[in-house]
TrEMBL record:
Coiled coil: none annotated. Belongs to the cytochrome P450 family. InterPro entries: Cyt_P450, Cyt_P450_CS, Cyt_P450_E_grp-I, Cyt_P450_sf, Cytochrome_P450_monoxygenase. PROSITE patterns: CYTOCHROME_P450. This is Cytochrome protein. One of its GO terms (molecular function) is oxidoreductase activity, acting on paired donors, with incorporation or reduction of molecular oxygen. The keyword Signal applies. Its cofactor is heme. Heme binds at C448. It holds the Pfam family p450.
Amino acid sequence: MYILVLPLLLLGLWLLAIFIQGLRNPLSHVPGPWYSKWTSMVLMYHWLRGRRASYVNCLHETHGKVVRISPSEVDFASISGAKRVHAFVRPFPKARMYDTFRSANGAVNVFGTRDVDVHARHRRLLSSAISEASLKNVEHIVHQRAELAVEKIGLETKQGGAADVMKWWLYFSTDVIGELTFGDSFRMLEQGKVRTISIYWNTLWPSSGMSLIHRKNQYVHDLQNLAQRVRIRIAFPNIIKLASYIPLPLFTEAYASVQRMGSYAEQSIHRYENIIAAQPNNPKPTLFTKLFNVNEETMPKANIVANAQAYITAGSDTTAHTLTYLVWAVCREPSIRARLAKEVADLPDRYQDEDLKALPFLNQVIQETLRLYAAAPAHLPREVPPAGSEIDGYWMPGGTDVQTQAYSMHRDPIVYPAPEQFNPSRWEAPSKDMKDAWMPFGGGARVCIGLHLALMELRIATTKLFRMHPNARVSTLRGFCDDDMEQVIYFLMYPKNKRCLIQAS
Ligand code: HEM
């Protein structure tokens, strides 16, 4: 009996300390559920279930545009708040969460770095190769890969009655970004399937003796499971750090997949470096070619590898999932499909991306898909600098995690009436608020560096699919239904059952 007194006393003191801490929480004045002053457990629970974004959205519906979601985090769903959180000039640094996006070799990359000056330098060195103007040089690669993807979708429909477009778009986007980053496509479209290989916790490539083709397949397999692994990395960053020493399967696999992806990036960049050394005057251009030119300002090779890895991970699932939802949403609405198919059918045979930029309905469809089915709709947290800052009339002390989520910005019923409805025509004459609230690519100084590439891929692939298959429709084979397409959101979003069956005819 007496044995219990001391532990109970300590527990009581501990709870009292937490209670007092909550009452003195510097974010107490911010609206939010009562428990968010004391704990982030509820938020974590929804995160682990892939429902954090919709939970935070519900909090906005109850508490308004500014919500305290945990003792140290505040989410903003207003345009003014988003502009402050994601500023171009004197931007807030990314929050601690981004340390989990560090690449396998430990070197910083443009996506994960939290240092504002380091970021500005990386961004300056990387930007010109991936600008709208420079991408004209690689447009033919996107055309070739999209053509093959659409052919494969047609073939799979002929053979099995329906094609899983999610799979083909992942192969498409992975092949494109692989070729543009490493100078060598993964050729996933040609192979048409990913061989899954069981990996033990300590099986890393350098010692595995896997062939190149196995490594590529493992790479794509790792990419396909990226979203769930990111969930674990963000939720338990400290355990992941120990995962190389302690064999806990869930954590070690999350750790090992990053190591494998880093190892593949390292070898591929090394191979490309050898190609440049062999043909210094005429190497196959990639998004990194300029950085190997000794006469120009460059970055250390470890950072080139880290950025290559960031491009591959940021540039494959995102584009593939957007295309998947686009095709599904269009095929469900015969009038939308017919209007889109007619617009792309009227193009000249040798059309270019420049022609596609001028097609009104195609671009409205893309904008609406990126609104309702944003591929990265979750929170994008930033850390308030030590001096603190006022946002939307609330004082945010230094160190607070302030964030926005496209999921909420894109569902404001005042800005987008009937927000859950897929209605491309709402973009015919968009209001200023519609344009300002639309942020599928993030915003400010950290806006997506690959957005022009992504938009080019979306325009070209959509055009090719609906020119070749103007009557494509959603399949009901193998029990496929709307439930399969329920959005699961960790950092990235994907359809619940990771498939999307379409009859391409
Ligand atoms: C539809 C496709 C895409 C979507 C929806 C998307 C979305 C986003 C979002 C929301 C961010 C901001 C992340 C943050 O603030 O934490 C971002 C950043 C980034 N994206 Fe994309 N992205 C797409 C395609 C691509 C592609 C094709 C690439 C290939 C290069 C890419 C590379 C990056 C990189 C490197 C960053 C970090 C930029 C920086 O911090 O300066 N993305 N993307």
